[in-house]
Amino acid sequence: MQKNLIIAIFFAATITSYSQSLRYQDLGILFSQNDNNGSARYTAMSGAFGALGGDVSAINVNPAGIAVFNSSSFSGTFNSRNSNIDASYGDAAFNDRKTLTYNNGVVNLSHAGAVLVFENTYNSEWDKFAIGFNYRITKDFTNNFSAEGNEAVTRFDSNPRDNNTPALIYNFTDGQLFNTNYGGELTELNFAISAVHLKKLYIGVALNLYDLNFTQQSVLTELNSDVNGNILDVELYQENFTTGTGFSANAGFIYKAHPNFRFGLAYQTPTLYQEILQDTNYNQDSTIDIGETTFFPENEASFSEFNDLQLIAYRLKTPSKVTASAAFIFGKSGLLSFDYINKNYKNIELSNGVFSKENQFFQNNLRNTHSYNIGSEWRIDQFSIRGGYKFEQNPNKLATEVNNLKGHSFGAGYNFGSFKLDFSYNNSNQNSSYDFYTGFDVNPADLKIDNRIFTASITLNL
What we know:
Number of strands: 20
Largest sheet: 14 strands, antiparallel, barrel
Distance between the termini: 47 Å
Shape: elongated
CATH topology: Porin
CATH class: Mainly Beta
Helix content: under 10%
Number of helices: 3
Order of helices and strands: HHEEEEEEEEEEEEEEEHEEEEE
Structural class: mainly beta
Strand content: over 45%
CATH superfamily: Outer membrane protein transport protein (OMPP1/FadL/TodX)
């Protein structure tokens, strides 16, 4: 019943939607979520850096953490993601479901950033300042899946060019096939400044800029016939090309209550997309199917009915986020870190158009989510081993336990002095569903998503 993911990247369908392609409410949730990409050290510990700091990827969690750095540094990260998607769709006649499996792989530069540290040489209570910037892929949309079965439904039960009187009714079906492809990514650029007061209190603020590119191409095929066995096969093709830019800000602090214990708190404002542009061949507000519809009548030439691409512009406000964190430091031997994240999806809002139905959906069907990340690191001389666990609650009120995102991670690194090499592996699993029929009582396709991502980072001391 939703989409979501952990340090891996994927999206299936945010909530049970009511059309073949994703609608505004689906996209509002999708663009509000985060894959938690970052350095290999960051991802190996499942992003639990709110009270820990010391990693440029943590700017998006708590910008105060960049002042934890002892010296200036630069880091860059590549990751390789592999996703297995099992899509099960029903057979109404035999009360059975057919499963198709798709494997998707992506390699990209997921993160790059730098921190510049300045020691305060004046007689002041402020010991150190740091400036940081970070680029990362907030969400990678690239994926695809197919579902095939027979739910005894015929959306297209007539031939628009049928000259018979009465017209033939094709209300028998041999099955349905749905295929959808996603592409694009949501990227983020962070600029942060942080300072340390009396070597105990770290405070920081950041400005975050976002660049959104999302595509979806979907094809729904029906294999229909009438009572006399005349055949009418139909394909409905829909496409969506979405772009936009947005911004948010975040601020936070970390306090060293004891050499072995620190805690932190951070707040991130809603992300404001002032203009999202959508080129599409269908109108989401329409009660009828719009797109390119191709008919294949038996013993006749095929023909298509379609609409030109139409440009739609709207605004989006995503939820704010609060992160409360704690970290236990065991000298130079190791550490244990914990982040709790609260995000109110009810506050998603669409504007610059008629979106009363969608905004009411956000208010009535979504909830305030509770998520957490746990990470640990242990050092043996220059060698480090790491592990983590992540839990992310589904924003849909009707979601069950299997719809929540759960994942684990582990990794290792070696400090060569002037540079560091780090590696991590992350795995997450989640169940979801996708309803690609409008106005029909049809069971959705069930999706089982398994994501595996390998990350490699290099950090240079400047």
